[in-house]
Amino acid sequence: MVVAGARAVEGQNEKDHLLDEQNLQLTHLNTILDTSSDGILLWKADGVLVHANRAASEILGINVVGLLGKRLSPQIQFPDFVQEAIRREKTLSDVEAQILVEGKAVDCSLSLRFVRSGKGMSFFVATLRRTQEIRQLVRRQISVKGALTLEHFVGKSPAIRQAQKLAYSAADARASVLIRGESGTGKSLLAQAIHQQGSRRSGPFIVFSCTAMPSETVISELLGQEGGDNIADGDGRPSKFELADGGTLFLQDVHALPLEAQAILLNVLELGIVQRLHRRRPIEVDVRVIAATSAPLEKLVREKSFRSDLFYRLSAFEIHLPPLRERKDDFPLLVEMILSRLRRKYQCGYVLDESAMTLMQKYSWPGNVRELETVLERAVVQAGANERIYPRHLPDYIQNPLTWIQVDGRLERVASLDTYEQEAILQAARYCRGNVTQMAEMLGIGRTTLWRRLKRYQIEPQDYRDGR
Questions:
Q1: How many domains does the chain have?
Q2: Which of 222, 346, 377, 379 could form a disulfide with 393 if both were Cys (CB 3.0 to 4.6 A apart)?
Q3: Which residue range is the domain that position 437 belongs to?
């Protein structure tokens, strides 16, 4: 009996020790859950709440801990697609949901998981996050970053000075801005600079390309989508206006917007609200819109493919960026600005030779500043460690410009006299293996004249002495 009693006491002590350990672990677990910034709700299959942390109370705006041991409904009601997921035992991950808390709508991001036992479903676990936190994360990922300001737009031509003046005026204004100009003139860069120069610089800068997606998906991307009545629709998406809230939404190629999307944009500009697809309640947004186009909007308005009221709303500040061919005075400044960036990128002191500059100034630059940047970057790669960019480092269509003429109703290309002269000298160099005396005799000109031509076209006779 004494031994049995001792064993009983020992067993009770062991049980008390295990109970104390479990209580300590439970305390540690509750402390960890309370320090989480995510709200956590845990309830049984009959709807009775068994656990809630402090963050859940803060996100939902009520004392959820006071509901422990009680059914969640009717104080907390999940949207239909979440209830459908619970019935079908489908997990959800970071979906946007509008929860009714004591009759008040609370927007949050929700994840749903299930804890099953051997006898079936035991518990439901919902993790809640503030919608604003999710949007800030998305903004950091998709918002364009950069320190570009209006001071980076160099130029002394009257057209570019007028554009700079208007851009400075528009930077702190709330009205929309319409930037017009040919492709490659720097409309996107100017939009970024206006954003960075103004009071919204601390907000997001969201870019929406109106031509980058099919017209049937533009509206859903622009408006966003709320969770619908089934699981497939549960994964809601915020609108571009919501992501740009407090900042700037830049619409590239705004002329490509479908008419229905134009009506949506006009509504947001006039009322300051956006309504997602499948959502009944509108959302207030504070967004400044900057639009860019290379199309003649007046012609599109006459053709009824662009709304006249939207055109007038967008063009409160209308800025025209001139093409590069009309900015001849700015050309050396632009070249130096681009070369300065390339020097930092490649850690090399690149310089444009005067002969190369002359050739580039004669070219018409249909691709504008974007084409100039591409040509110069290609040239520095061709130049390598040489650091001086000569005409031979430029593309052939710049070295040998062609003229288009009308012949029998069709366009034909005619090379310039310089092109023919350069080709004749190159053929002589190959045939005479770089011997200047023989080359001069073959071409019928003096050595001094030939040397001037060789220098002009950056042709090195020694390059042909091996028979190339």
A1: 5
A2: 379
A3: 404-464
Question: What tokens does 188 get?
Answer: 């996107």
* 332 prior amide bond cis, ω within 30: no
Which of 35-39, 173-177, 403-407, 433-437 is predicted with the least confidence, judged by mean pLDDT? 403-407
Structure token pair of residue 92: 């959800």
Token readout for 127 is: 């993790």
Instruction: Give me the DSSP letters along 391-445.
Output: GGGS-HHHHS-EEEEEETTEEEEEE-HHHHHHHHHHHHHHHTTT-HHHHHHHHTS
pLDDT digits (tens, 9 = 90+) for 294-328: 999 999 999 999 999 999 999 999 999 999 888 88
Q: Which long-range contacts (CB under 8 A, 24 or more apart) does 108-115 make?
A: 108/39, 108/59, 109/133, 109/134, 110/78, 110/82, 112/82, 112/85, 112/86, 114/89
Asked if residue 77 and residue 124 are part of one domain, the reply reads yes
Domain boundary among 378, 399, 420: 399
- Do 373 and 409 lie in one domain? The reply is no
pLDDT level of residue 259 (50, 70, 90 thresholds): very high
